[in-house]
């Protein structure tokens, strides 16, 4: 870890993650390298290794940040609502996902390899952010549906989290994918994120 204040260290880490996020808007994961990231930040490429050893660790940090921001939205949902119908909760939860396209896009990647190519300490910090989001969704269901059995609430979260991994691919077909589906005679019923999420959440409830 580089010398300096905690604030400076965190600022450098955020700058690196910001650069990764910026590149990810126009480049696929497989093409982004630490060299690319180093070209758009103020620190040298070699300095990046003081914070992250692999590009997978940088992407894991980006995904962690997305989970934290989503968790903040869930906290607002809990703070601003005393009760909700199933339709209202499905609407609100779907909108929190609609607001986080980067989260959904990152979840559609091969997280197994990203996690395997990250050091344990980085993976542990990420899992803490994931666990926070998981707990907040569980809390939402418990607060808004007090009559629902614990078994049903548990089943909801156990199915909801795997479901969100598949939202992005079903709502953002690439040009090549669209052409292939057309040539295969497959009707592409591509739905917006909100509509797909809303329908799925309502079904799970």
Task: Produce the secondary structure layout.
Layout: H1 6-24, H2 34-38, H3 45-48, H4 55-80, H5 86-98, H6 101-107, H7 111-116, H8 120-144, H9 150-165, H10 167-171, H11 175-183, H12 193-204
Unreliable segments (pLDDT under 50, ≥5 consecutive)?
none
Q: Would you state the CATH class of the largest domain? A: Mainly Alpha
CATH superfamily of the largest domain: Tetracycline Repressor, domain 2
SSE class: mainly alpha
Q: What's the story with the biggest beta sheet?
A: none
Radius of gyration: 19 Å
Helix count?
Answer: 12
Distance between the termini: 46 Å
Order of helices and strands: HHHHHHHHHHHH
Helix content: over 70%
Strand content: under 5%
Would you report the number of β strands? 0
Number of domains: 2
Mean pLDDT across all residues, rounded? 93
Outline the structure in words.
By secondary structure, this protein is mainly alpha-helical. The protein has 2 domains: 1-51, Arc Repressor Mutant, subunit A, CATH 1.10.10; 56-204, Tetracycline Repressor, domain 2 (Orthogonal Bundle). 72% of the residues lie in helices and 0% in strands. The protein contains 12 helices and no strands. Helix 4 packs antiparallel against helix 5, helix 4 (55-80) crosses helix 6 (101-107) and helix 8 (120-144) crosses helix 9 (150-165). The longest helix has 26 residues, at 55-80. The chain is globular, with a radius of gyration of 19 Å.
Question: What are the salient characteristics of this protein?
Answer:
mainly alpha, Tetracycline Repressor, domain 2
Structure, briefly:
With 205 residues, the chain is mostly helical.
């Amino acid at each position: 870890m580089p010398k300096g204040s905690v604030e400076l260290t965190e600022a450098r880490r955020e700058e690196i993650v910001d650069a990764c996020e910026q590149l990810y808007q126009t480049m696929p994961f497989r093409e982004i390298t630490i060299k690319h990231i180093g070209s758009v930040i103020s620190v040298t490429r070699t300095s990046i290794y003081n914070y992250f050893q692999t590009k997978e660790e940088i992407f894991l940090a980006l995904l962690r940040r997305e989970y934290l921001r989503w968790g903040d939205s869930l906290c607002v949902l809990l703070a601003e609502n005393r009760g909700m119908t199933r339709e209202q909760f499905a609407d609100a939860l779907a909108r929190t996902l609609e607001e986080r396209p980067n989260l959904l896009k990152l979840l559609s990647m091969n997280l197994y390899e990203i996690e395997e190519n990250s050091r344990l300490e980085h993976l542990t910090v990420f899992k803490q952010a994931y666990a926070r989001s998981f707990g907040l969704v569980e809390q939402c269901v418990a607060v808004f549906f007090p009559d629902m059995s614990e078994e049903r609430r548990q089943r909801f979260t156990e199915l909801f989290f795997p479901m969100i991994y598949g939202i992005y691919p079903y709502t953002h077909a690439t040009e090549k994918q669209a052409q292939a589906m057309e040539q295969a005679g497959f009707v592409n019923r591509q739905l917006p994120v909100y509509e797909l999420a809303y329908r799925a959440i309502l079904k799970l409830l």
